[in-house]
Design brief:
Pfam families: polyprenyl_synt. The chain is mainly α and 365 residues long. It has a single domain, classed as Orthogonal Bundle (Farnesyl Diphosphate Synthase), CATH 1.10.600.10. Helix 15 runs antiparallel to helix 16. It is globular and about 65 Å long.
Amino acid sequence: MIESGRLPERVQERIDRFLDSRMSILAPLGSDARDFAAISRDFLRGGKRFRALFCWWGWRAFRPDGSTSTSDLEAIVSAAAALEIFHAAALVHDDIIDNSDTRRGAPAAHIRFHSRHEASSWRGDPDAFGRSAAVLLGDLLLGWSDELLDEALMSLDDPRAARAARLEFNRMRSEVTAGQFLDILEEQAWANRTDAEQLEAAWRVIRFKSAGYSIESPLVLGASFAGAGEREVRSMRDFGLPLGIAFQLRDDVLGVFGDTAVTGKPSGDDLREGKRTVLIALTRAALPAPHVRLLDELLGDPELDAASVASLQATIRDCGALDRVEALIGSHTTEALSALEALPIDDDARRSLRTLASAVTVRTS
């Protein structure tokens, strides 16, 4: 059995081996293709590995007896690595959609390709090249995540478990893609909706864009690899979904109030991007009409300076919206922890999942 503290290391090793195997496939295409794919290595290093850890503990929760075979261990590590590759694909695409120049304190993929274009003095528009190349890199990573998951599934002896795991991965992939569309839709369509409709739409984005693929699906994927039954999977969802919602609410707070030195993203980035989050919907509902109009005028302006960001932050804080979101984070976390106590798992798994729950909801990045 792998100690959970070593899981990120094992996942990285698995990712590296997988990338080596795929680079050999690309070798006949020449150095340009290899250089293109090599950028993926940077996006698959570091990070918190939350999805891998939730997948591992979703599996470990139903495999407590220590009788696990080497092939079973390899399978769950590969599944956890597949989730991390999927996450990297989503980040590459996300940064293009949001026009984000940085990721984890370093240039985003499309910015790297843009810089390569400029440094090489190629013809054409470096911005267009950067976006196009990054879209293809994200697509490549998305396909690779599926290939690695298939490798993991082929090593399972239980076809029922393999099918359940595949269906969960497919569900996650569909939900997060559609959820991303709902997110960009709200940035454009919010003015045609009532305040209540805006809040409802913001909750829908949280549920389908983030909460499922960040925590609920990794947990269920791991449980499925362990052969968990329908009742056990439902119980795991009862824990994972409210925790995933709390996780995304915390992310939304950090998108407005996060410290650049810690998050690796400019402070107030969600304000410049015009994210129509639950935090923003609650702010609009709490403000008088003239202040709402000013908020709407400023939100989504990519040229917002530090003073304007600070002013918007003060507005969100002073109207009580920030406190309401903090209370929502607390209530969803409490709901998740109550469900965790009811799960039929051993104390070690319960304790580790409780620690993870704290890590994803009480964080600064």
